[in-house]
């Protein structure tokens, strides 16, 4: 039972490794990711590495939420003008 658990954890860790990107790489893709989201596309499908990074990196999630907020605000203001 315990052995099996370790196998699952190890497998998960190895699978995670495949998509692993750094915070810098994530940051460089955040614009694109946010644009896709605002366009109604599925960024998790198109940029899975970013989605995966956001899932486990609170710092980048914070960055992303700030970016998204600013883009939505800009979009609203553009509509008003
Ligand atoms: Zn990060």
Write a concise keyword list for the protein shown above.
81 residues; 86% helix; 0% strand; binds zinc ion
Number of domains: 1
In whole angstroms, the N-to-C terminal distance is 63 Å
Query: Regions with pLDDT < 50 over 5+ consecutive residues?
Result: none
Average pLDDT works out at 87
Q: What is the molecular shape? A: elongated
- Fraction of helical residues: over 70%
Number of strands: 0
Task: Outline the secondary-structure elements.
Blueprint: H1 2-19, H2 23-38, H3 43-46, H4 48-56, H5 58-80
The structure holds zinc ion (ZN).
TL;DR of this structure?
The chain has 81 residues and is mainly alpha-helical.
How would you describe this protein?
- The chain is built from 5 helices and no strands.
- The termini are far apart.
- Helix content is 86%, strand content 0%.
- Helix 2 crosses helix 4, helix 2 runs parallel beside helix 5 and helix 4 crosses helix 5.
- With 81 residues, the chain is mainly alpha-helical.
- It has one domain.
- Zinc ion (ZN) binds next to helix 2 and helix 5.
- Zinc ion binds next to helix 2 and helix 5.
């Amino acid at each position: 039972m315990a052995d099996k658990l370790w196998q699952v954890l190890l497998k998960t860790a190895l699978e995670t490794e495949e998509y692993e990107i750094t915070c810098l790489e994530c940051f460089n893709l955040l614009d694109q990711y946010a644009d896709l989201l605002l366009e109604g596309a599925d960024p998790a499908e198109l940029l899975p590495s970013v989605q995966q990074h956001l899932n486990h990196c609170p710092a980048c999630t914070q960055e992303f939420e700030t970016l998204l907020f600013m883009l939505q605000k800009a979009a609203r203001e553009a509509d008003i003008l």
